[in-house]
Structures are given as structure tokens and as C-alpha cells.
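thread: overnight batch results

M.L. [08:02]
morning all. the overnight job finished for the chain we discussed friday. pasting input first so we're all looking at the same thing
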Amino acid sequence: MAKNKKTFVNTHTHIFTVKNVPPYIAKTFVPWPIYIFLHLSVVLKIYAVINWMEDIYKKARRKRRKLVNYFLTRRAPYVFYVILSVFLFCNAGMFLVEQTVDVGEEGILSKAVSFVRSSFIDRVLVYDIHPAVLVVVLGSILALYPGIWKFFFGIAKKVFSVLKLLPSNKSLDFVKRYFNIVRFANYPKQKRIFDKLVKLYAPDSKFVVLPMDMEYMAAGKPKQTYLDQLEEINEVFVKEMKNNEAMLPFVFVDPRRIRGKNGKEFFDWEIGEEVVGGKTRKYVKLKDCLLKKYLEKTEGDKSTGNFKGIKLYPALGYYPFDEDLLALYHYCVDHNLPIVTHCVVGTIFYRGNLKEEWNRHPVFSSADGTPLDTRTQSNHDLQVNFTHPLNYLVMLENKFLYRVINKSTDEKLKELFEFNPHIKHVSNKLSKLNINIAHYGGAEEWEKYLELDRSETSFELRENPEEGMSFTTSQSSGKQLLSKPAHMYRTKTDWFTIISSLMLQYENVYSDISYILHTEKMMPLLNDMMINNEKLAEKILFGTDFFVVRNHKSEKQLYSDLLAVIGEEKMDLISRDNPCKWLGL
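M.L. [08:03]
and the structure it wrote out:
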């Protein structure tokens, strides 16, 4: 690596194992009771059988090649091989026909079969062979004859194409990703997966490692608890890794864990005060809890302070502006801790019952005050409400943040944010959130942006490259932040434009391109964007979502394909300069 280059960073990777995946992850993708039979343990057994069969096939193929080469290198044995093949296939064919046709009956078909058989017997090509002997000998021929293997594999592909009869392409994608998770996470320890990841990149590279807490997903309890998963990562960082500087682990935080029975053991805080420039400043001070252990270094204790940021996954059933997360956000701003938040419509989302309260957006409303209708018919569509990038305006803009805190009954929270109901004010601390809106909305939203050539909102990104689209509605009394977001929700404004505009307007908002890289037709848009908008190019982060997208492309291919499109200079920008700035390295 050149001396003037910063550290290479992959900002989005996973090393969780199947022990961290809930057993009924197929729930809602396939109907009851089918998803029960797709229990994770069953899939693991199927995968084990497939692996076993694959090994057997590879060994048989090697032996078959040796035998075929032996026979084909000698003309006489080859002629004998062909004669034997014809002899056995004739027998097999007649055997199958006679099982379906009653030769004793009168009729054209039965007479034809009798005639053919007697003709073959007269020519000494077909003899009465015991079916068991026929199967053994024919199986041997099949193992030697390459064309037969191709034939049967062709039939198998046709049979597997019945998967296309599943409800939608989303179901097919889910099946692929489900088996992919099993394939690459089927290790007993996370260290094994991380070791493989490190070997795919140049020495001295770093990796943001994102755990997954799927215990509140309503798809059953994972075999390993989330807290044990965290502790395993911590142990890997402290004890087992040869060079722990390569790992940049984040803590996954779910607000339902914070407000759960043992929530204070996970996250507990109080208000601290300090004088800065003659003014008293409030900050979040962590009490003894797991987040303090993982985020704050205690002198002489190597097991503390090893995690570098926070991971969120709203699609699992909550809004990112949940009031139980606000104090943590405040803490992140106080300590300049980076946050990664999931922002793409995917296959991991809340699987439980839909709630009435989710039919209306808790913050956004029309100009007349009517709450935004967010009614959905399925869990898959529900994740859009939780994941939508406009939700991050609630933390970044005071007028929205005020509405959340105004509904809260937590007086400590109101004190922290200097809540003032008389002037409808809260402190603007969260506008400085250092946040990566991961996946950049997803390839589907990029494609939507390209197709919307008559949308006024998408025009704004080109017309105003310094700020992108406006999130406000101009009125005679000034700017109001109430009607425009609701309008964008209803008109389904593409997420590419929204996220790009957030990155342009807010100093510490970034986005990684994980789960975009595998879509080759989106790469020209990425290149065009980086060439024509320097400000936006400085907010894009390299990330691959290892190992979740392995069903699309390998890790090495993702990197090589991207480098070929954008070139070394822009690759250095998104994989070195931007990540180091976001992470504070």
C-alpha cells in the first residue's frame, strides 16, 4: 500500500453463524404449515446431505474420468464399450415398456411390442436379464458415460424449475439467501468466518463487523442468545485474533431489548453536565451496563471498549426514532460514535402479527394534521414503513424530534433534550448524528430513480447538486417541515434521491453501497454520480455485506468488478478516505 493512502476499510460485513438465526425464518415467505417444515435444523440437515452427495459425486466423477480415459485410449475396448452400452439400454428400454404394456392383450401396441422384442431376440441383442442385475450393470454404464450424466442433470434442472411456481420472485430470492446463510454461516465459531474474510483482502485491511439480534423478529428463538453472540465477538477480539486491529465490531441495538425486563443491564444512563465555553452542556453518562463495557475502555481491562459503533435494523419491527433510542443517539453524538442502519427492502424483517398502531405514521402528517396512512397488508410491505429513509429526518430535524419527545412520559429524556413546550423546542443535538444509511436504499430504488424521468422530486437532485431535493414546503410564514415528507411517502419518491439529498444536506450522513455492488447495471449510475457530484462522492462508503450476498457474487468478484468501473482513484475515495473520516480513524 502506498504511503500516502489511508487504511482500506470494508464498512459492512457479517460473521454471525446459524446459531444466531431464528428457526422459523421462512415464516411469512411460505404459508403455514410449510414454514414449520423449513425449520432451520431441517435446512441444516438438507445442506449436510447435499454436501455429502456433492462429495460422492466429485469422487465418482474423478474415477469415471480415469475409467473413460482408459477405455477410450484403446479402440477395441471402446468398440466393446459401445456394444455393451447398446445391449444394456435395449434391455432397459424393453424392460420399462413391458412394465407398462400388457403384451398378452390384443391390440396394435401390444402386437408392436411383441414384434420388436421377438425381432431383437432373433438378432441376439436382448436377453431376459434379472432386473437387479440390469440395474447394477446399467448403473455402472451410467457412471462411465458422460452424456447420460448431462441428460439426468438436465432433467433435474427442469424439476427444480418448479420453484418458479412459488408466490413471487421474492420467495425465490429468499430461498437462495436462506441456503446461502446456511452455507456460509455453518461454522461453530464466528472467528472461522472472520478468518476467511480477512484472507480475501490485502494485509492491513479493516472490517466493520455487524452482529445480528433477531430474537425480537417473531420467528422463534435462535440457538445462541444475542448477548452470547456479542461476548463471543469480544472474546475473539481480545484473545484469539492474531491482529485484532483488523476487526471493527459494532453493537447491535434493538429498542425492545432496552425496554425489556433486563433492559437496564443492557443500556442504563444518567444526565451529566459540564461547562464548555462558559455554558453548561448536558451529556449522556453511561451507568454500569453492557453498552458501557463494550463502548468505553477501562484502564487495565482488555475486555472493555472494543466495539466501535452502533448497528440498527428497523425492519425487524420498530422505527429508528423510537424514544428508547434517543438517549443512545445523544451519547453517540457526544462521543462521535458511528452508526450503521439498515435501509433496503430485504428478506430479514419482522414476522409477527401486524398491529393497529402501525396503520398511522407516529410523526409525519399532512399539512392539516392528519396522520400519514401507513396501512399494509403483509409483513414484507410493513418493513418499508420502518426502513424508509425519511424516518431519519425525525432525528435530524428539530420539528420532528419535538413531536416524538412531546409524546414521551420520560422526564429524564425531556430534560436531556431541553424540551420546551411553550416554544415547541428541543436541542438540535441529533442533527450531528454520524450515521451510515446502509445499502443506499437498494438496487430496486436506484432502478426506480433511473426510470422516473417525469418525477419533479428526482429532478431536484440534478438541478441542485449542492443540496438535492428539498424536504421543506415554502410558505408565506417561512418554511414548514410537515407536508412535504408525507407527500413523498404517498408518491413513493425513490429512496436514491432521498438518501442522496440527506447526505448532501447533513454533515455526518453517509451511505454504503453494500447490496448494490452485485447489480452490474447500477454501476454506471454510481460512476456518473461520483464524477458529477464531488460532494456526494465524499459520502459514499465501500461495503460488501459479506457473506449475505454470496448467492449473487463472490467477495473478490464484487471488488474487482467495482474497481473496473470506477477506477483506482474513486475506489480509494470510497474504501479509504471516506470510511476513515466516518469512523474517525
